[in-house]
Amino acid sequence: MTEKTLKILQLYPRDMNIYGDWGNVLSLSRRAHAHGLATEIVDYNPGDIFPEDFDILVGGGGQDSGQTVIQDDLHRIAPVLRSAAESGAPMLVICGLYQLFGNQFTTVGGEVLQGIGLFDAHTVGSEERLIGNIVIESEEFGTVVGYENHSGLTYLGDGVERLGTATKGEGNNLDDDGEGARVHHVIGSYLHGSLLPKNPRISDYLVRHAAERKFGSFEPAKIDDSLADRAREVAASRPR
To answer: pLDDT tens, 54-73?
Structure first.
């Protein structure tokens, strides 16, 4: 086995993992293996000792109640997360954690959950739920396919980079065609599915930046992505 090992941290899998987000961690690990890198997967839940030496962070979605459960702990570790992001640690946060990585989330019931401000964005709850297959076009990742299921409407601050532009589905909100957000090497998105098995270019992005940050270089392998390409085509062709 290679001596080069990436530590993948799954953030709050007990409370923020209701949309198959574990699939992103598994896919990311297997993608790293395909590039000749070993992986160590570590789960972190409230009350655990936070592993500050992680190389990639992956966080998932959850109900409003789950966000309330982890809110205090998230703020406790926020300084470490901000420092890691600023130093180039790659992260992928989906749905509920995407919202809490912004400035704040006001639920449909009026409860205000303060975020950690990694993204200059805010989210407001709505009575309407945005559900269905979604396709976005990204300058860096090409056509990205997933499945959205959220009632929160996220609005990015001026100058915040979106992950992509929705060509099918809604994305961040009902008022513009943006989907997701990016800062440093942190990606936030509403795309479930799970996202990474169908979109290996995003996995490669996370692995590359983690390897370059930890080892100083990254030598990608040539990988046959024909099955992922086909899965993306089929998913994109399905009705909302």
So the answer is: 999 999 987 767 788 899 99
129 annotated as belonging to a binding site for a ligand: yes
CA-to-CA distance for 164 and 183, rounded, in angstroms? 13
Residues 6+ apart with CB under 8 A from 226: none
CA-CA-CA-CA torsion sign (199, 200, 203, 205): negative
List of domains in the chain: 5-237 (3.40.50.880)
**Strand pairing partners for 191?**
none
Q: Is 184 known to be catalytic? A: no
Query: Are the C-beta atoms of 201 and 142 separated by less than 8 Å?
Result: yes
Summarize the confidence of residues 112-129 as an average pLDDT: 95
Provide the 8-state DSSP code for 127: E
Count of C-beta atoms within a 10 Å radius of residue 156? 21
| pLDDT score of 2 | 52
What SS3 state is found at 33? helix
128, amino acid identity: E
pTM of the model: 0.95
Q: 1 falls in which pLDDT band (50, 70, 90)?
A: very low
Question: Of the listed 122, 150, 192, 209, which one is catalytic?
Answer: 192
Given a contact cutoff of 8 angstroms between Cβ atoms, the answer to whether 203 and 28 are in contact is yes
From the list 24, 111, 26, the residue with the least C-alpha distance to 61 is: 24
Active site (annotated) includes residue 95: yes
Percent over 90 (pLDDT), the chain: 84
